[in-house]
Amino acid sequence: MKAISKVFETEEVETHALKNIDLIIRSGDYVSISGPSGCGKSTLLSILGLLDLPTGGEYLIEGVNTSELSLDETAELRNSKIGFIFQSFNLIDELSVSDNVALPLQYSTQKFSMEEINKRVTRCLDMVEMSHRMSHKPNQLSGGQQQRVAIARALVTDPAILLVDEPTGNLDSSSGDKVMAIIDHLNQNGTTICMVTHDPRYADKAKTKLKLLDGTITQEEALRKAI
Ligand code: ADP
Ligand code: MG
Predict the structure, then answer these.
(1) Which atom of ligand 1 is nearest to the CA of 35?
(2) pTM exceeds 0.85, yes or no
(3) Is residue 107 within 6 Å of ligand 1 at its C-beta?
(4) Does the Cβ of 10 fall within 6 Å of ligand 1?
(5) CB-based contact 42:165 (threshold 8 Å)
(6) What is the CA(147)–ligand 1 centre distance, in A?
(7) Which residue is closest in CA terms to ligand 1's atom 27?
(8) Domain limits of the chain?
(9) Nearest ligand, measured from the Cα of 44
(10) What is the per-residue pLDDT across 150-201, written as a single tens digit (0 to 9) for each?
């Protein structure tokens, strides 16, 4: 990211959510983002995840200038490279656990066979220890279990980058620790992680720690240099 800014304009007010953000995230990095409520953390993740566009600056992914992509190309890049995990899980209550996890494959422009879909769904649910709840509906699960299903859903497309917004915000500490152990494990296996968290215990696990204040990076600490 080079000089990224984001201004939200409503009828009355202009909010400068991000101001002049310069940021390099290397493949395999583990970045934590913390800062007070309203400082721009979720806005930054949305732009990183191609869910929203900046109002200024340049954002390149593997050398591709994302502002030059069409809407379809943007969606394709997002679907193939990026996984999302949110504080509120965002599972669909009407669908079973396995159908929730399969959803990103059904939306993908790449066509997957039924067999491939089943294989991936089973593998991802195994990874988060939720295969025994495949046919359950999300509201029949605990918060920690729902978040693990949401992680399986994020992983089913094999994303290179995982964007995580306060994953433990709605969880008790032991469920939160379990979710964090899965995220740590994914990074050890090469997934690039960018995670918003309020919890200093979890932020400390990152290799690069960012502090945001009023839309600006005020502190960047590289604990172990990613190569
Ligand atoms: P954080 O995640 O750090 O709590 P956000 O990135 O959600 O903060 O928000 C940063 C600022 O941008 C806040 O002042 C918020 O009110 C504003 N904001 C976020 N999204 C919108 C939007 N869609 N429209 C207008 N203002 C927004
Ligand atoms: Mg937020």
Answers:
(1) 3
(2) yes
(3) no
(4) yes
(5) yes
(6) 23
(7) 8
(8) 27-52+70-222
(9) 1
(10) 999 999 999 999 999 999 988 999 999 999 999 999 999 999 999 999 898 9
Residue nearest to atom 24 of ligand 1 (CA): 8
By the 10 Å C-beta count (0-12 exposed, 13-18 middle, 19+ buried), 198 is classed as middle
Please indicate whether residue 41, judged by its CB atom, sits closer than 6 Å to ligand 1: yes
The CATH architecture to which 27-52+70-222 belongs is: 3-Layer(aba) Sandwich (3.40)
pLDDT tens per residue, range 111-134: 899 999 999 999 999 999 999 999
User: Atom 25, ligand 1: which residue's CA is nearest?
Assistant: 8
CA of 116 to the centre of ligand 2 (A): 35
